[in-house]
Design goal:
Length: 64
Amino acid sequence: MELGRLKKKARFQLSNNGANLAFLFIMMALFYFLLPYLLGRFSLQTALIINGPVVLGCTFTFLV
């Protein structure tokens, strides 16, 4: 595939999803950084267990 066609396809795919991806990133970052403070005791271990799948899901969403 030519480089120009790839660029057009990428721009088309991102044209309607930019705001959604930005919102998802902000929500994931807030969840990731605020979860240890909200959990209190044993927060680090619990946050690591919960945040792993959350970050994996966001990564999959960004890559697909």
